[in-house]
Amino acid sequence: MCALAHELEARGFATVALAAVRAQAEKTRPPRALWTAGLLGRPLGAAGDAAYQTLVLRAALGLLERTDGPVILEDFPEDPPDAADHPGWTAPTLGAPANFATELQALLPVWQQAQQRFRRTTVGLSFQSPEHWAECAASFLAGGLPVVAPLDTPALTLRSLCDDIKALYGEAAQAAGPPPSARQVDTWFWHQTQAGALLQRLRVMAVASNNTALKTVGGRFFVPAPWVA
């Protein structure tokens, strides 16, 4: 978006970029940018937090009134409220599952509870029901390259599967009680679940693959850099 801002400005449109990665904004030097401490993809903070979102938007739009350019890069001074750990949150109770398939089976009722609570889900990118996820993942780990229609490549099939797994666990983590911070959810998922361990193995497999597309998505999208084992 920072690079796109230059093109829009050249055509007469005033722009303000919300920069999630400050180093990138420093390098691409958009005319105006506001860096926030939100998670990548969430520069406005948590969904539904209208008060914080309004503060960020007002600060961003305020850059349009500045005349000390040509490049303005400001840091928004407040961390998003969802950055703080909530002491009252507890992770879903799953016992000690032997593998991903049994863990997922135990988590499905919790995930369904989350859907009832929020009346939405972001799960569905893989075009597979959760009951088929373990089998699909196992096929990749065994050296296969399955493709699930309408996804047309193994790389897209596996990336979508990994996205669905992360989404389901993230939604289930919010099924009851106070909202956890992203750090609490990530710590639970990457350090305490069979699903997190599975995605680590899938990443290793993909990075070592002779399939160039699979190697690319595995290295970039399966496991966030801070959580790579």
Strand order of the largest sheet: 1-2-3
Helix content: 40-55%
What is the number of E strands? 3
Which regions are unreliable across 5 or more consecutive residues at pLDDT < 50?
none
The geometry reads as globular
Tell me the span between the first and last alpha carbons. Answer: 30 Å
- Radius of gyration from CA coordinates: 20 Å
SS summary, helix count: 9
Order of helices and strands: HEHEHEHHHHHH
Task: Please outline the helices and strands.
Blueprint: H1 2-10, E1 17-19, H2 22-28, E2 32-35, H3 50-62, E3 72-75, H4 100-118, H5 133-141, H6 154-172, H7 182-192, H8 194-207, H9 212-221
Parallel strand pairs: 1-2, 2-3
Structure description:
The protein is mainly alpha-helical and 229 residues long. The chain has two domains: 2-83, no CATH class; 100-227, no CATH class. Helix content is 48%, strand content 5%. The chain contains nine helices and three strands. Strand 2, helix 3 and strand 3 (72-75) form a beta-alpha-beta unit.
Short description:
The chain is built from 9 helices and 3 strands. The protein is mainly alpha-helical and 229 residues long.
Keywords for this entry:
229 residues; mainly alpha; globular
